[in-house]
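Lab notebook, bench 4. The sequencing result for the construct came back, and we need a structural model before the next group meeting so we can plan mutations. Quick request posted to the team channel:

Model the 3D structure of this chain.
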Amino acid sequence: MTVFAVYGATGHTGRLVTAELLSRGKDVVLSGRNPDALAALGPPRIMPAALDDPAALRALAEVADVVIHCAGPFAETGVPVATAAVEGGCHYVDHAVEVHHVRRLLDEFQEPAQRAGITMLPSVSFYGGLGDLLAGAVAHGLPEIERITVAYAVTNWMMTHGAVETARLLFADTERIGFADGERQVGFVEPRNAVFAFPPPVGPRTVIAPVPFPEAVTIPRHTRTRAVEAQLTARTFEEEQAFSSEHVAAEERANSEFTIAAQVIGAQSAAGHLRGRDLWRAAALASVEAAVRLTEGAAKSGVASPAETFDATEFLTALAGQGVFELALPKKR
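Done. Here's the predicted structure in token form:
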């Protein structure tokens, strides 16, 4: 039977991923850094593995067909688990939003993953992953694209401890990775305020532009364009609960509302969006859907973005069919 390992199983995302896998009747192994917290979860099987214990991480990878890595910040946790996946020969999916981690896996783990015969998908999550898929779906078939903008409108976001730590790392980063003039750009970028016209009922909103999400690295891998930028509503970080909700109940954390919009500008322009509630559940189901497809042989070996690996329209449509969000895409060209 196919075995799914969940690393970071005691966290909010890890619990959602585990629940979704079990609801699908999958064989699950729970792992993470805290043996006592794992034991408190009860069945299914547990295999504790500290980040500084490569033997334990490799043992986890050797019993699993795929590991879903849910324990951020991935700038700190990503490489040890990804390395174990390569050495143990299991597929790898993570929830990273940190663009430097995503870039590192794409640039440095390509040959090791191919040699191991595994597929590695970083950033199959809400920020980054869903934006990459939406941009891929909207841009498909369009010629001479000048610019792709992925904009996130998020309200009532309640960050976990891991998310707060990740946000601090992102804010402190002075070596931002962007994509402009047809090539990757690295260096300090002064964020600006802009206005993005989200579809109704959200409408125009002030956004922070750019935000250092993975789209600048992932989208150019599958779509030819001269520029990519990710944006986020400024109001998201102004809401009082965003940074003070590390210990709220799961039911309360599920009350976020979101719209992700992709705007493609070029010889022909197009736009699409998805809208839903509970960004944490959306992220969890996206990673589970990707992991299940990898175990069914849906991708070639190596490291890739979600939209580089799957048919973006079909993947998003499948998630929409599970009630994750409402999806609006341009008519087929």
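The longest strand covers residues 145-155.
Will bring this to the meeting.
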